[in-house]
Amino acid sequence: MIGGDAAGMSAASQARRLKGPDELEIVAFERGNFTSYSACGIPYWVGGDVTDRDRLIARTPEEHRARDIDLRLRTEVTELDLARQRVRARDVDSGAESWTPYDKLVIATGARPIRPDMPGADAPGVHGVQTLDDGQELLDSLARTRGRRAVVVGAGYIGVEMAEALINRGYQVTVVNRGSEPMSTLDPDMGRLVHEAMEGLGITMVNDAEVTKILTGDDGRVRAVATQDREYPADVVVLGIGVRPETTLAQAAGLPLGTHGGLLTDRSMRVRGHEEIWAGGDCVEVLDLVSGQERHIALGTHANKHGQVIGTNVGGGYATFPGVVGTAVSKVCDLEIARTGLREKDARRVGLRFEAVTIESTSRAGYYPNASPMTVKMLAEHRTGRLLGVQIVGREGAGKRVDIAAVALTAGMTAEQMTTLDLGYAPPFSPVWDPVLVAARKAAAKVRSSL
Ligand SMILES: Cc1cc2nc3c(=O)[nH]c(=O)nc-3n(C[C@H](O)[C@H](O)[C@H](O)COP(=O)(O)OP(=O)(O)OC[C@H]3O[C@@H](n4cnc5c(N)ncnc54)[C@H](O)[C@@H]3O)c2cc1C
Q: CATH assignment of 328-446?
């Protein structure tokens, strides 16, 4: 197993459940200091909702070793020798190298964060948030910094979650974003709602802005972020500008990569054309069941499922991963943001004509205390009415409502079929017509009227 986090150690644990140490020897290489940790929890740890870093570790190296997994921490795999079925690994501390043979190989090397290639990008006070070590460095940096101005570069979900973390720490936060609106995984009209809500939270949102330089003071520490036309003073900078699949080793070994740079696998997560090699997590591309195309989506929810499938297959069982519908949920303070399926531009790209509707509803019955507004956008295919995508922005209760749509998408339902879904109702939980059903009714009507 190469990579000791979600995909790699899920695979190792599942394989071990199926085969004991006499039948299957498992060696896992991890170049970092931790195993099975939740990067997803970093924003909440940095923001102070989670106070103990160790709560983000699902299973420690010792726990893995107790299950007869030969875990080699701080050991980086530097080469795959496919012809001789062996990997070369280097001890990060001593530099010592050795070869380890394999019968079955699992690549779970994750993704690497995109770092801007510009002056100042490595200056003290500029932080990524990919690993627990990154989170700790950021917390140490915040503790050292007397100023209270933070700039977050990037307004994807990691950028907005980090904006929240810094607000919670009492920082004045500016988010500098290359796109026209935050959350480019939404259509811009829905991203606009996120933008307005972030400003309502006191976050300064700067869109259509390309960071050109990170400026440092006399002490070498960051002092500002420069865009094409302005400087934004910063005592600390957090980078959240996306990730790419970490496939350096795979590429050097000639394994098949897709157009997004991720490894290509079959349904059993076996690397295409390689019987004895599996790959999963952020280093692979996944099949988007709605568009029928391969995509790179770096999410822990997929990585864990891939690991489970790989572990089952490596352990002699049979499992497959069918693909994804593209569901994701995040939040910035009390604003919940969710999406599943295709955006307008995704649908156009694959040649699907659609009807789009947007509705305003509330999280609870209008008369019930604390009912808050919720916006649901739905895309249904022209003529057939097949559900293509849903985006939801609102307060408490908005985010996980997207799961209704995720199930409907997976089941291939039409907007019309969705209107009759037997969803739970009581005034504290939703209006009598749930906001998702209101959107489905409107989408179904639009499809009918366009026939
Ligand atoms: C701040 C943040 C918030 C997130 N929030 C969410 C969320 O809310 N929901 C969600 O679904 N996902 C979220 N994610 C994404 C999620 O964390 C990842 O999708 C998930 O960790 C991927 O698991 P993985 O095992 O594929 O890769 P990784 O977790 O990246 O693990 C890969 C491991 O491989 C090791 N490695 C790489 N190359 C080598 C090598 N050559 N030799 C040895 N070891 C190597 C790395 O050190 C790393 O530990 C978040 C990520 C971040 C950074």
A: 3.50.50.60
Measured CA to CA, the distance from residue 284 to residue 346 in angstroms comes to 20
Q: How far apart are CA 94 and CA 32, in angstroms?
A: 14
Q: Does the beta carbon of 30 sit less than 6 angstroms from any atom of ligand 1?
A: yes
The token pair that represents 168 in the structure block: 């919670």
Atom of ligand 1 nearest to the CA of 249: 41
pTM: predicted TM-score of the whole model, two decimal places: 0.96
Question: Does ligand 1 have an atom closer than 6 angstroms to the CB of 167?
Answer: no
Helix, strand, coil distribution of the chain in percent, nearest 5: 30, 30, 45
Class of domain 115-239: alpha beta
pLDDT in tens, 335-351: 999 999 999 999 999 99
Q: Distance from the CA of 362 to the center of ligand 1, in angstroms?
A: 35
Q: Name the superfamily (CATH) of residues 6-112+243-314.
A: FAD/NAD(P)-binding domain (3.50.50.60)
Each residue's pLDDT tens digit, 281-304:
999 999 999 999 999 999 999 999
Q: Is 40 a catalytic residue?
A: yes
